[in-house]
Design goal:
single chain; alpha+beta; Alpha-Beta Plaits; 2 domains; five-stranded antiparallel beta sheet; elongated; ribosomal protein; Large ribosomal subunit protein uL10; Ribosomal_uL10_bac; rRNA-binding; Ribosomal_uL10_CS_bac
């Protein structure tokens, strides 16, 4: 890799660290190609990206970014998982780590906040952006549904009372 390619890679990594909602660093030493392929497939399904980069270049790219705290984890064979959704990458990595003992989550960063191993696990248990939006929409829609039910209920009650009176009269 020549100097121009390294500079381009550092620039790409810098943009990733600037724009990602969450970045997780894990050690992948001992994983087979099939296992790494499985990780990448899970990541793409979960709107997450996985990247293996030289630690030295990643540390250069981290300088001056909100994710600077993860530089300490960049030793050995590391992989970086990142996503715009502040929870997606943590969920994918935690799910993969449960089924693979060789894959060790080291830590990460979410919105400028450093995360240790326990922090990444806690973030993975949070609802995703889409789940939160659905919950908010449900909360907003519930009062309208209750009002419609309340308005419709008296009319249905009156109709059933009238039909009962009509049956008794007949």
């Amino acid at each position: 890799m020549d100097r121009a390619q390294k500079e381009k890679l550092v620039e790409e990594l810098g943009q990733i660290f600037e724009s990602s909602g969450v970045v997780v660093v894990a050690r992948y030493e001992g994983l087979t190609v099939a296992e790494m392929t499985d990780l990448r497939a899970r990541a793409s399904a979960g709107e997450t990206s996985v990247r293996v980069a030289k630690n030295r270049l990643a540390k250069i790219a981290l300088e001056g970014t909100p994710c600077g705290s993860i530089a300490e984890y960049l030793q050995g064979m590391t992989v970086i998982a990142y996503s715009e959704d502040p929870v997606a990458a943590a969920k994918v990595v935690e799910d993969f780590a449960k089924g693979n003992q060789k894959f060790q989550i080291l830590g990460g960063n979410m919105g400028g906040t450093a995360l240790d191993r326990a922090g990444v696990e806690a973030v993975s248990k949070m609802p995703s952006r889409d789940e939160l939006i659905a919950s908010i929409v449900g909360c907003i829609g519930a009062p309208a549904s209750n009002i419609a039910g309340a308005i419709g209920a008296p009319a249905s009650n009156i109709a059933s009372i009238l039909s009962t009176i009509e049956e008794k009269a007949a």
